[in-house]
C-alpha cells in the first residue's frame, strides 16, 4: 500500500453501521382506523431499540410490520435490505412464552434448531439455556418450571437461530416485579454479549431506559414518533442497581415519561 493510500485510510470517515431496519413513510390502517404512521425510522445493526408509549399507540403493530406479519398500508420496510417475511430473519418473543407443552425444555430448543437446519446436540441445547441463566432444566417439561424460567426458554429459543433480528413484544409484562427485574438485567447482558439488533416493545418507562440503547416514544392513534432518544448509559460493567441509581438514568426516565404523558389525554 502506498503512503497516500495509508493516509486516505487514516483520514477516512468512520464507516456507519449497516442498516438492520429501514422504515420509509410507513402507515398501517385496520379498516378506517390508522393505527400507525407515517413513520420514518432507520435502525443500525447492533442497536437495542425500545418502542414505548401508551396502550393502543401502535407499538405491537409496528413490531408486527417489522416481523412481516402485517403489510404496510403505505410506505416500505426493509430488514437487512429486503422486505420482511414471517418466520425469516427474526427471533420472536411474546408476552406469553408459547412453548410446546408436549415437549421438554430441551425439546423446545431442539425444534427451533431443527427448523433452522442446525445441528442439534445436548451440548448446544445446554449452552443456549446457560446463556439465559438456566442449568439442568433441559429434561424437564415446560410446566415443571416457573413462568420466569419459561420466558427465559422462549428467549433462548429466539437466540438459538442465528437471526440478525430479535423482536420482543412485552416479554416480561406477565411476570412478577422481582422476576421481571432479574430478566431485564439478564437480557441486558445477553444483548451486550451477542450484539444482536433488537426491537423491544414495552409500556414501562423504567424498562425502556434500562434496556434500550435508543428509545422511541410513539404518540397515540395514530402512532408516530414523539421522541427519538439515544440512551448513552454504560451497557456493561455496571450492576442494575448502580445503573438505576445514576442521575442520568433518572433524567432520561423523566424525559421519556414526560414525552408519553404530554401526548395522552385521560
Ligand atoms: N387486528 C386488528 N384489527 C383491528 N384493529 C387493530 C388490530 N390490532 C390492533 N388494532 C388497533 O390498532 C391500534 C394499535 O394497536 P396496537 O396493539 O398496535 O397498540 P399497542 O401500542 O401495542 O397497544 P398495547 O400497549 O395495549 O398492547 C389500536 O387502536 C388497536 O385497537
From TrEMBL:
ABC transporter domain location: 21-245
| Pfam (any one) | ABC_tran
Question: What are the protein's UniProt keywords?
Answer: ATP-binding, Nucleotide-binding, Transport
Q: Annotated Gene Ontology MF terms?
A: ATP binding
* Gene3D superfamilies linked: P-loop containing nucleotide triphosphate hydrolases
Transport recorded as keyword: yes
What protein name is recorded for this chain?
A: ABC transporter ATP-binding protein
Q: List the taxonomic lineage.
A: Bacteria, Bacillati, Actinomycetota, Actinomycetes, Micromonosporales
